[in-house]
Design a protein that fits this description.
Length: 364
């Protein structure tokens, strides 16, 4: 129920990104037009065969729609640029569906509703939320189609909320409920992985500030034992951490730039968006690690074991506007990785790794 009689949806939101001179936000890599990487879960959670979209919370007229009923509402098509938090972007993706504003006008939003939450039918109960005014200003789309066809299940079909201008984790897959709230509720990725709640790619709002106890961090660094620890955004740059045990650690957004990490063990660690620029990683183990969005430009990767790793958005060199490689990582004949991981890379990064393989095979 609403708290008062002012129930119109009149919105403005003034928090804007900085001036955008390029379509690609900072530190993103462009994937080819025919590629759309699979990230996260690939199928929805269990539920009734008929998909129903519910709109509720702080609204005067809660309602539910079947897919057929949703298709009969005014349809909108929008060309959207996808920007994943793991540093890859895909341009000009044509999504079609119903504007969020169309649904909320039908529901009649209460004046005390300040946020909108998107709830998925997923095994891990994924959610995300936005300031209501911002969600409307960004022209959030409740999409059922992409590039002229039905939205595939692995990419969030039959219904996905599409939020233009935000990292794509804000665009919730398998959308089942839209809920209007008086107070914000952190979504799944924001609460569990520390992803930034605002998620502006041009501001590089990938992660919220980490709350790491400095004394504990110093003690762990001195012990060279991070095993099983959650140390998001820890700064270990320019330290000698040779032989570090970081197996199974949660090290998203960690900074290991210019570190001595000879024979370090990162097996099974989550190193999404971690930085290893110019690090000495000779003989390190990354077996089955999550390296999505990790940076290795200029790193020494001789003898590194990357078996079973995920490489979506991973970079091994810097690519200039002309497509030239600089600050390339160093491979040798003993560097181990799966070809399946190479195929996950963007075109430029894959070409760099392929050329590196050829050079080492020829003894150069």
């Amino acid at each position: 129920m609403c708290d008062n009689d002012d129930i119109s949806v009149i919105t403005t939101f003034k928090q804007h990104s900085p001036m955008r001179s390029h379509r690609i936000p900072p530190n993103q890599q462009l994937v080819g037009p025919s590629r759309w990487p699979f990230v996260g879960e690939r199928t929805c959670g269990p539920g009734k065969p008929e998909w129903i979209l519910q709109v509720g919370g702080l609204v005067e007229r809660p309602f539910a729609l079947s897919l057929v009923e949703l298709s009969k509402l005014p349809q909108t098509s929008k060309s959207i640029d996808i920007h994943c938090v793991t540093r890859w972007s895909k341009l000009d993706v044509e999504f079609s569906g119903v504007l969020l504003s169309e649904l909320l006008n039908r529901a009649v939003v209460c004046a005390n509703a300040k946020f909108v939450a998107f709830v998925a039918r997923s095994t891990r109960n994924h959610t995300s939320s936005l300031h209501l005014a911002e969600a409307l200003e960004l022209e959030t789309l409740i999409a059922t189609h992409v590039d002229g066809g039905l939205l595939p299940n692995e990419h969030g079909g039959p219904i996905r909320g599409i939020v233009p201008g935000r990292y794509f984790y804000k665009s919730v897959k398998w959308l089942e409920r839209i809920e209007l709230l008086a107070e914000n509720q952190l979504g799944f990725w924001e609460a569990t992985s520390g992803y930034h709640d605002h998620a502006d790619p041009w501001l590089e709002e990938r992660y919220m500030a980490a709350n790491i106890d400095r004394r504990l961090a110093r003690k762990l660094i001195e012990s060279k034992n991070f095993s099983g620890q959650d140390l998001r955004s820890i700064d270990c740059s320019q330290r000698d951490l040779s032989g570090l045990n970081a197996s199974g650690a949660l090290l998203r957004d960690a900074n290991f730039s210019r570190c001595q990490l000879h024979a370090a063990d990162f097996s099974g660690a989550n190193l999404s968006n971690a930085r290893f620029s110019a690090a000495d990683l000779r003989g390190a183990k990354f077996n089955n690690a999550d390296l999505e969005g990790a940076e290795f430009a200029g790193a020494d990767l001789g003898g590194v074991d990357f078996g079973g790793c995920s490489w979506f958005g991973t970079s091994f060199c810097i690519v200039d506007d002309a497509g030239n490689f600089t600050a390339g990582a160093k491979f040798d004949r003993t560097t181990q990785f799966d070809q399946a991981a190479v195929e996950q890379l963007t075109d430029h990064q894959r070409r760099f790794v392929d050329e590196g393989q050829k050079r080492t095979a020829n003894g150069r």
